[in-house]
Each structure stands twice: as structure tokens, then as C-alpha cells.
């Protein structure tokens, strides 16, 4: 079993900005050194590296820059932001099986000043790969941006459950309220109202601008090592109580429109099932959730898939303050990707670690278990991190 | 009309109709000769010497006898302050009508006498003719002709010039539609069907299961025997988005993309067209329509089913 | 002035020639002197301006006819551009000769084809 065998021993990040002014490799190297320093380790201790398949910086390049020597384990996790928690899952597996002793997970990009994921890329349907063929059923019709891909699910959700754009808006308002008191957040000190959400321009109906996460430059790195060793290091360990990846039947990249139902995220259900099973916990045992919030609608869907509320009940749960800092399930106390920064989900894992350590900007009381999810609409992943 | 793809050239020129252009031309021609400002410098030896040197013209006549080379006629007034001539309005209207290309076709000069050192010449312009539209090698265009006469101090013509330009509409380069699908052995039948006006759905050659999007193997029975059915072309809108931002190449925003549920039991993505955005709704009945996007791609799109 | 065929005149269209003639004819349009701009507008290079074409046609004929000839008329049909780096070659034949008035058919070619074709009328021994 993987549960409890490994821990996150260090976290590090660059500043979150709109224009880092530095190369993506430099951002990666800076975050990796910061995470090692946080753990009280040095580059010489690292023998494993994991990142996302989308990261522009090869593991060997980051190793070279940071003075890491021999690597016995390296891995790249697929499917965009769905890889975030998967990196920790791979690292934990490597540590638990002895393939590596200290694994660094990292994600670094200039997603605002460099290649912006939100911009149309006609090349998506240009490659003779399974993904290129998949995209070819959508891109020729101008269905080409992440916001539009998600909006298609969102419209169906509104239709089936009688929800409204304001239900999405309340997610954004909550995330921005959390970010407003997080000094590391891009939107620190800049909360929004529901009226402002409703007044923001359409991106892809039914999504307003303020339903979409920001675009950010920055990097986050995590150090994963064995639970025993982590206990001897500088910071309190965040035990990897559960780690899982998940893909559902009929899965596609952002466009799984051909399944029976379009109101859920079956791949997140696959992750949830494993997380609860592996951890032995239930939804009432977690004190905070870090839910991937690139677009507001899928925060609602995740609440339902993870078992925090029933089908179609998430709008009411959020309306009643369910995801606020003082609610029954505080979600993204750092402000999420809507409020803090879009680092492809990696900054959320760091927030989970801080909540367990007790040194988060918006620290919650009595946090012992935090659930974290990764990118939605794609094959995804999740974690339950616990104090100990 | 919303959501109409822009990949297909519209072909219809916008702007001023031919009649209006000819009316303007006639009006300008009726103005007759319009005087311009006299040349800023009198005919002078330094400019003649400069011109002869640049042209490589060794003819001694000019400087020996204090005469300007005849082909210099226009040079003397090149720097004159230009009032709006009767020609300018015609050329501007042609530009506005889309005839933005310009190439000079004829220059005819008649020299009544050679200009003499010290005299100052004054040009006068009259618009003479607009002919067209005509098909030319450069594209469809109009020939605009005007005459300039340079007068001496006694108001006698020294040089006359006829000048003609072709104002043409640069032929629209048929832009390939930028959002092309990649096509392989598993999907070619669908796109070929679209070119023939058929909405083809993959059917398993063994178990008969219909499937969209298609693939090489039947997920129900693992058969690789494939055939296809031609859908009725009816559908129901299952979900949709109205894309506003960011701009998408080959598309005008806003446009609607929907997931359409077919009575055959599969779903397909396509644009909902010929329907005001605010009238699009989940559950609306649709009918397929086939739109050429360029000379190689036809997309099956969806229009509201007539009530 | 006895021959019926004019001696060929070949002019190398150096950038110097294109630019100096454009300026000598007081034509400051950038496509006649600014290579980068000309290329940005879709031209191969800077090219001869029309006033210079007229000047060179005049020179071609008077080089042959001599300083006593007086040019009365130049009619030119304009063709392909004459770009820097090309060579402009003029040829001509006498088509009529009547009462001291000579008409010459002129053709100026560049590598792309005819740059200028037309007729020049002159008086063999005229008074200007």
C-alpha cells in the first residue's frame, strides 16, 4: 500500500506574476532550490524528478541547473493540469518502492508572458496523433479554447439542474475573497462582488471572464521523501495519505461530450473512489479541500463527484457558504487559481502542505487532512495529505 | 446572421456601385481644367544638369541653348503645393470601392516647344475618362485617364500630357480555412461524406453498433470491420456555447458551437448557424447543412429545423 | 540619320541609377529609393519611376538622332516594373519619315518583359 509511506517534506515557489522576466528553466530551478531549502536538503540529496508532460523544462536540464547529480528516477505525468497530483503520486511510488529516496516534483511556466493556454491554437488538430484526431471533431468548428470546452459542460449542467451563472459566480467571489487576504496571491486585496462577476464580459457563454482563472508566470516545486525521513527534516511532514490518478470511460481531453451524461466528471469519481479507499477517510474527515479551479463550473462538479454534496446540490452548498473559510468545507483558502495564481494546480498542493503545517496565510483551525485535486475535464489526479 | 464561418469568400464586392463611380467621374470631368500652383522654381540650369547626369544624357543642346529637356516637363511642378485635383476624388472613390491596386498604363506627352531657362510653368489638370469595370490580368479594374497641360506666363501650352492608370481590385487570394482537421484511415469516410452532403456515422460491420466519433475498432465487439450509415440529418441541441473571446482564426465572433444529439443515438459537435444567438436553446430541433470552408473542407453544420 | 534601326541602348539599373534619377525628377516616393520599404510593399526591389522612363526614352532617341533633333511627342505604354539589379535595353525602328518628321517605334525590355513600348515623334532638324 502507498498510504502513509511518503511525505511532502518541502515546498518552494517563485513569485506569481504576469511577466516573470526570466526563462521557464530558471523559474523551475529557483522553485526547486527553494523547496529543497524548505526541506533542509541540498541538490546532492535529490535522485528523482517528476514533472508534467507539458513542462518545457526537461528533468535533466533542471538537474543540471541546480547541481543535482545522478538521477535514478524520472517521470512525466500526462494530461495537462490533470498531472498536478499525479506528480506526487509518481514520486510517492518511487520512494515507496525504493526507486528513489528524494524526488522533486516541479511545474514552471510563463503562461501569461509566454505561451498562453487560453489562446486558440489551430495546431491542436494538426498532428496525426490520437489527440490530434480527437481535437479534429471540435477545433474545425472553432471549439478551440479551454473556456469554451468547459462552457459546453457548464451549459448542460445549468440546463439539467436549473442552476444559473450566479451559482458559478459565487465560486469566483469566494476564491477572490480568500485571495484578498493572501499576500502571495496576485489578487491580494482585490475581492470581487457577484455583481462584478455578472457584469464581466462573456468569454464563452455561459462563462463570464470572472469564471476563468488567471494566466500566470511562476513555478512551484515539492520535495517528496519517505515518511520516516521526512519526520527528521526541518519542517513538519505532510503525509501522502492517498494519491490517485483517474480516467473515465469514453475519456477525452476536455471534450468528453459523448458519454451518457455531461453533468459530471467521471474521471474525478475514479480518483475520489481511490482516495477514500486508500486513506480510509470519508468526506467529513477533511478540514479543507484544494479543488482545481481553472473554471468555476467544475468546482461545483467536483464537490459532487468527491461526495461533499449530492448531484445537483453543489450550487446550494456554495450559496450557503459551504466553501467559505468558515464553512463546512473551506475550499482553496489561498484563493485558488482564480485568486492566487494559475500554476497548473501545483500551487494548490503547496497550500495543502501549509495548512497542515499551520502556517498558511488564511490558516484554518485544526487541519489534519486536506484533499487536493488536479485539472478537470482531462484525466486527472488527487491527493489526501495528512499531518503526522 | 450569426456564427457564419468566414472561411468562404463572399465574392460580393462591398462599397460603391459602378454607376456611382461613373457618375462621380462624369461630375469631375465636367469641372474641366483645374489650375494648380505654378512650379516653385523657374526652369533652371542646375536642375537640368542634375537630370542630364542622372539620365546619362550627353546631348549638349539643352545647356548650350538654355533649354529644358522635353521629358523634364513634369519635373518643374513636382514640388508645387498640390491642391485637390479633380482626379483625387475619383481615385479615392475607387479605393473605397475596393479597387485599391494601382498601376500606370499610359503616359503620352506632346511638346509644343521646349521650356526655356527662367520661365515658370503652371500645370492644369482635367479628368477625362473612367472606363470599366474591365477584366485585366491584375484583376477587375477601372482605367482612369486625365490630362495635364503646362502653361507658360502667356497662358500658352508648353507641354500636354495624357496619363492613365488602372485601378484594380487585387484578386482575393482564396485563404485556406485555418482550422483544418487531421484526417486518417479511421476518419476519412466522414470528411468525404461531408463533401458529398452526407452525414456519415460509423457502423460496426459485425455488431452494427453506431459510433461517433469514429475509431478503428468497435468498442462493443472489438471488430475492425467498419461501415457507415448516413444519418437522417436531424438532431436536437444537447448543449452549446456562444464563443465571444478570444478571436478564433477563420471565425467571426460571436458564434455558436453545439453538441447535437442525433436520433440515431450518437452525438456530434457542430456550429449552429442561421439562427440569432439569443434564440439558440438546449433541446431545439436542428437540421444538418453542409458548408464549404475552402476548396478542400466541408463541415456539417446545423440550422434550426423549420417549425 | 540614315539607318532605319536604332542602335541598342542597354542601361544597367544600378540602385544608384534608380535612386539618382528618381531624385533628379524630384520624385521622392520611397519605393524608388528605400529598398526595405519597397520590399515590405511587395516589390522585388526599388524600381524606376515613370518620369525617368520618359527621360530614358527621350535620351535613347536623341542619342541616335543627335542634338539638332527636336522631340515633339513621346507616347509610352507602361509594362512591367524595371527593378534595381535588372538591365533595361532599348531598341527602336523608324516607322515613318515624312517632311522631316520621323516616327520611331521604341521598345524597352527588362528581364520580366516589356517595361515601356511606344512611339517617339521628332523633327530631324527642328527649332525648339
UniProtKB/TrEMBL annotation, chain B:
Residues 231-291 form the ChsH2 C-terminal OB-fold domain. Residues 37-160 form the FAS1-like dehydratase domain. InterPro entries: ChsH2_C, ChsH2_Znr, FAS1-like_DH_region, HotDog_dom_sf, NA-bd_OB-fold, Thioester_dehydratase-like. Residues 191-224 form the ChsH2 rubredoxin-like zinc ribbon domain. GO terms for molecular function: DNA binding. Keywords: DNA-binding. Gene3D superfamilies: 6.10.30.10, Hotdog Thioesterase. The keyword DNA-binding applies. It comes from the Bacteria. It holds the Pfam family FAS1_DH_region. PANTHER family: BLR3430 PROTEIN. This is DNA-binding protein.
Automatic annotation (TrEMBL), chain C:
It holds the Pfam family MaoC_dehydratas. Residues 8-110 form the MaoC-like domain. Belongs to the enoyl-CoA hydratase/isomerase family. This is Acyl dehydratase. It comes from Nonomuraea aridisoli.
Amino acid at each position: 500500500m502507498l498510504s502513509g509511506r511518503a511525505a511532502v517534506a518541502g515546498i518552494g515557489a517563485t513569485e506569481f506574476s504576469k511577466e516573470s522576466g526570466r526563462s521557464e528553466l530558471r523559474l523551475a530551478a529557483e522553485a526547486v532550490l527553494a523547496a529543497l531549502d524548505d526541506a533542509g536538503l541540498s541538490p546532492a540529496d535529490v535522485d528523482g524528478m517528476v514533472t508534467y508532460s507539458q513542462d518545457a523544462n526537461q528533468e535533466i536540464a533542471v538537474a543540471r541547473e541546480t547541481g543535482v547529480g545522478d538521477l535514478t528516477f524520472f517521470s512525466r505525468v500526462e494530461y495537462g493540469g490533470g498531472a498536478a497530483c499525479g506528480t506526487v503520486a509518481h514520486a510517492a511510488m518511487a520512494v515507496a518502492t525504493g526507486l528513489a529516496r528524494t524526488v522533486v516534483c516541479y511545474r514552471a511556466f510563463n503562461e501569461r508572458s509566454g505561451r498562453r493556454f487560453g489562446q486558440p491554437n489551430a495546431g491542436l488538430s494538426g498532428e496525426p496523433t490520437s489527440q490530434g484526431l480527437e481535437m479534429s471533431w471540435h477545433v474545425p468548428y472553432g471549439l478551440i479554447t479551454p473556456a469554451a470546452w468547459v462552457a459546453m459542460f457548464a451549459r448542460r449542467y445549468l440546463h439539467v439542474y436549473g442552476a444559473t451563472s450566479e451559482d458559478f459566480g459565487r465560486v469566483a467571489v469566494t476564491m477572490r475573497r480568500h485571495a484578498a487576504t493572501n499576500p502571495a496571491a496576485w489578487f491580494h486585496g482585490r475581492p470581487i462582488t457577484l455583481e462584478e462577476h455578472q457584469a464581466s464580459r462573456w468569454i464563452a457563454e455561459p462563462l463570464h471572464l470572472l469564471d476563468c482563472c488567471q494566466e500566470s508566470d511562476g513555478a512551484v516545486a515539492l520535495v517528496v521523501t519517505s515518511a520516516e525521513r521526512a519526520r527528521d527534516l526541518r519542517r513538519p511532514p505532510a503525509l501522502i495519505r492517498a494519491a490517485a490518478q483517474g480516467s473515465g470511460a469514453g475519456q477525452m481531453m476536455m471534450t468528453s461530450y459523448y458519454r451518457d451524461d455531461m453533468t459530471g466528471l467521471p474521471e474525478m469519481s475514479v480518483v475520489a473512489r481511490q482516495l477514500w479507499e486508500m486513506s480510509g477517510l470519508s468526506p467529513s474527515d477533511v478540514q479543507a479541500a484544494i479543488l482545481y479551479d481553472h473554471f468555476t463550473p467544475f468546482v461545483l462538479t467536483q464537490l459532487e463527484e468527491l461526495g461533499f454534496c449530492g448531484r445537483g446540490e453543489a450550487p446550494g452548498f456554495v450559496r450557503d457558504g459551504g466553501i467559505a473559510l468558515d464553512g463546512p468545507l473551506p475550499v482553496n483558502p489561498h484563493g485558488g487559481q482564480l485568486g492566487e495564481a494559475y500554476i497548473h494546480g501545483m500551487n494548490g498542493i503547496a497550500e495543502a502542505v501549509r495548512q497542515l503545517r499551520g502556517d498558511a496565510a488564511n490558516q484554518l483551525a485544526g487541519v489534519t487532512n486536506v484533499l487536493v485535486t488536479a485539472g478537470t475535464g482531462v484525466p486527472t489526479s488527487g491527493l489526501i495529505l495528512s499531518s503526522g | 446572421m450569426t456564427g457564419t464561418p468566414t472561411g468562404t469568400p463572399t465574392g460580393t464586392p462591398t462599397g460603391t456601385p459602378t454607376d456611382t463611380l461613373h457618375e462621380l467621374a462624369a461630375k469631375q470631368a465636367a469641372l474641366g481644367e483645374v489650375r494648380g500652383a505654378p512650379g516653385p522654381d523657374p526652369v533652371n540650369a542646375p536642375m537640368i544638369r542634375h537630370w542630364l547626369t542622372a539620365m546619362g544624357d550627353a546631348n549638349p543642346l539643352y545647356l548650350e541653348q538654355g533649354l529644358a529637356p522635353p521629358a523634364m516637363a513634369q519635373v518643374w511642378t513636382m514640388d508645387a503645393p498640390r491642391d485637390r485635383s479633380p482626379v483625387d476624388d475619383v481615385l479615392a472613390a475607387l479605393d473605397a470601392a475596393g479597387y485599391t491596386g494601382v498601376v500606370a498604363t499610359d503616359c503620352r506627352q506632346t511638346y509644343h516647344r521646349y521650356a526655356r531657362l527662367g520661365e515658370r510653368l503652371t500645370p492644369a489638370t482635367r479628368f477625362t475618362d473612367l472606363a470599366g469595370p474591365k477584366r485585366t490580368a491584375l484583376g477587375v479594374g477601372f482605367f482612369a485617364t486625365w490630362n495635364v497641360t503646362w502653361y507658360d506666363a502667356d497662358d500658352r501650352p508648353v507641354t500636354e500630357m495624357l496619363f492613365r492608370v488602372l485601378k484594380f481590385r487585387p484578386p482575393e487570394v482564396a485563404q485556406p480555412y485555418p482550422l483544418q482537421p487531421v484526417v486518417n484511415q479511421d476518419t476519412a469516410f466522414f470528411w468525404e461524406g461531408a463533401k458529398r452532403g452526407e452525414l456519415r456515422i460509423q457502423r460496426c460491420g459485425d455488431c452494427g453498433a453506431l459510433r461517433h466519433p469514429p475509431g478503428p475498432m468497435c468498442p462493443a465487439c472489438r471488430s475492425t470491420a467498419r461501415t457507415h450509415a448516413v444519418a437522417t440529418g436531424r438532431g436536437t441541441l444537447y448543449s452549446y456555447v456562444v464563443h465571444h473571446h478570444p478571436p478564433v482564426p477563420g471565425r467571426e465572433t460571436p458564434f455558436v458551437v453545439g453538441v447535437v444529439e442525433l436520433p440515431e443515438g450518437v452525438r456530434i459537435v457542430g456550429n449552429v448557424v442561421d439562427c440569432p444567438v439569443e434564440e439558440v436553446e438546449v433541446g431545439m430541433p436542428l437540421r444538418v447543412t453542409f458548408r464549404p470552408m475552402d476548396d478542400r473542407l466541408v463541415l456539417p453544420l446545423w440550422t434550426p429545423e423549420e417549425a | 540619320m540614315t539607318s532605319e534601326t536604332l542602335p541598342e541602348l542597354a542601361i544597367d539599373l544600378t540602385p544608384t541609377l534608380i535612386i539618382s534619377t528618381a531624385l533628379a525628377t524630384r520624385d521622392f516616393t520611397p519605393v524608388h529609393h528605400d529598398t526595405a520599404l519597397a520590399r515590405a510593399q511587395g516589390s522585388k526591389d526599388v524600381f524606376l519611376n515613370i518620369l525617368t522612363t520618359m527621360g530614358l526614352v527621350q535620351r535613347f532617341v536623341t542619342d541616335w538622332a543627335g542634338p539638332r533633333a527636336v522631340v515633339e511627342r513621346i507616347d509610352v505604354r507602361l509594362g512591367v516594373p524595371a527593378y534595381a539589379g535588372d538591365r533595361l535595353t532599348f531598341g527602336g525602328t523608324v516607322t515613318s519619315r515624312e517632311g522631316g518628321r520621323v516616327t520611331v517605334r521604341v521598345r524597352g525590355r527588362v528581364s520580366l518583359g516589356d517595361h515601356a513600348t511606344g512611339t517617339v515623334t521628332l523633327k530631324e532638324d527642328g527649332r525648339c
